[in-house]
Amino acid sequence: MQKSNISHFTANCITKLFGTLPDGKQVFSYMLSNGNGMEVTFINYGATITSLKIADENGGMTDVVLGFNDIDDYIDAFNLPSAPYFGSVIGRYAGRINKGTFTINNDTYQLNKNHGVHTLHGGNSGFGRGFWQMKQLKGGLNPSIVFTYTSRDGEEQFPGELTINVAYTLTENNELLVDYTATTTKDTVINLTQHSYFNLDGHAQTVSGQELLVNADEVLRLNEDNIPTGEFIAVKDTAIDFNKVGYVPASIDTSFVLKNNDEPAASLYSAKTGLKMTVYTNQPSVHIYVGGNCFGSIQGKESASYHTTSGICFETQNFPDAPNHAHFPNSVLRKGEQYNHKTKFAFEKAK
């Protein structure tokens, strides 16, 4: 699709036309940069991160997230047998909801089912396909951008009109801050996350051999459909005990129960580039995913051929299916309250 030249520039912020949706709405890309040369680019389709470039130990710039060059590729990816959700904000409820149903205030809601008999990542469309408005763009030191989206009452059969703001801030310390807030007109459930696939060797490489730490002693026990049973499994002396450094597994789809929000949730390190990413959050879980949503047939940006170990997701969030487990952390947002979710991705050269 034909792109325009730069349409807007402010200090540390560049805006370009990225493409046009089938309904004629224009999607723009917004690039923030800091004084260290770090650059992060977003589009207002899905409030998506399309690129994150950072100086590595080898003197180059490494793009550490998977993505596409064109809006049509993002649209088409949602029609794959299992959509990869590259870089998008996930909602209204990240993860699985058992049989797509839950109860609030004695009212039972049946959601749209998009994963067999279950609901995954918000339903048939979800927020990753949403057209978000760019609400605020701030340049200078610690540049930031705010996207907003209104999910109508009954969208995907969820109750309440939900208004969401997602603020991305790039600090001079090479941190990407992600702050989510939301309010609702009716009591509802909510669980937002960011679904970027990271690769510290570069988006066209493999995450195999990169080092992983996770600050968790337990994971959620899952049934055969990857639905939480409500029980917890200790990770000690298992293949998924990442309290000590381990290599990124070839396949994982697991919700880790975080021990302490004052400590890092997880970290990733590449000996090849010397880059380290540390993840912080105020959420009770980080869902770590590597695997099946890249089929060896997805061509990403810069003609990269994405495959099952192209990237690793750190989905900071509440537990999947929390609305159906009273002992899980609260997932209900009441009318008159505000949802607040904070996550930080901090980058450094650690060689």
CATH classification, class level: Mainly Beta
Q: Specify the structural class.
A: mainly beta
Instruction: Report the span from N to C terminus.
Output: 40 Å
Oligomer: single chain
Global mean pLDDT: 94
In words, what does this structure look like?
With 351 residues, the chain is mainly β. It has a single domain (8-349), classed as Distorted Sandwich (Beta-galactosidase, Chain A, domain 5). It is 2% helix and 44% strand. It is built from one helix and 31 strands. It has one helix at 71-77; strands spanning 8-10, 13-20, 26-33, 39-43, 48-55, 61-63, 89-90, 96-97, 101-104, 107-110, 119-120, 133-138, 144-151, 162-170, 175-184, 188-189, 193-194, 197-198, 211-214, 216-222, 228-234, 246-247, 252-258, 266-269, 275-281, 285-290, 298-299, 305-306, 312-317, 332-333, 339-349. The strands form eight sheets. A nine-stranded antiparallel β-sheet has the order 12-13-14-15-31-25-24-19-22, with no helix packed on it. Strands 1-2-3-4-5-6 form a six-stranded antiparallel β-sheet, with no helix packed on it. Strands 18-29-26-23-20-21 form a six-stranded antiparallel β-sheet, with no helix packed on it. A hairpin with a 5-residue loop joins β2 and β3.
